[in-house]
Model the fold of this input.
Amino acid sequence: MEMFWAAPPVTRTIAAAMLGSSILIWRLVSSFLITGPQLDIILDPFFLYRYGSSLERDSTRFQSPGDFLVYVVFVAVVIILTNAIYFGGFIFTKALILAVAYTYTQENRGQKATIYVLTFPIKWLPLVMLLITFVMGGPRSTMVQVTGLLAAHLYEFLTRIYPTYGGGRNYIQTPNFVRRWFATRTNTRSYGTAYAARSGGADAGRGSSTGFSSGGGLSALWNSRGSGRRLGGD
Done:
């Protein structure tokens, strides 16, 4: 440490930033956020949003708070370890998208999927995505993407297939601290999340939607006026 503090301030700051950028955990996270070139800049976020939002909002397997986060973390860890051991990939965005797409197909069996102008049974979605990567990116990119399929299928096996058909236990559970972190006062709707009204503000919320408070509408407004006088009277 004495050597570090003895160095000139600009040099030691750059050196420390370089070291921190090389070892910090965010490098692992950013490897899932880098899209491909050209159209992939738009298509990668689109596919992740399309399939991921449907799973997080509508899937029966991600009903408890934080379940989808645990799924993403598990899949990401398997992708990183598989690439570190076998393939040596560094960018895992397409692998994550393929994992989410595979889980999406398991939740929507019997439906159709469309990519570009092609419409096909949804069970073929992961294979079509792999074929597109093979044509546009080559075999190495395809092998890196395959790790997402392996990770998603492993999650499927450990959480549904083995407990249901093998009589085993589902060991991938959402930790309590994650549940508490997600456990906000919310009401779930089919189109998103509505936050519960603050105490004392319910009447005001209803009043703002109708134009009048909930204390009686027009009659309350009329009764709030004075007694008045009859026209032509004294």
The chain has eleven helices and four strands. Residues 185-191, 193-225 have pLDDT under 50 and may be disordered. Residues 139-165 form the longest helix (27 residues). The CA atoms of residues 184 and 192 lie 14 Å apart.
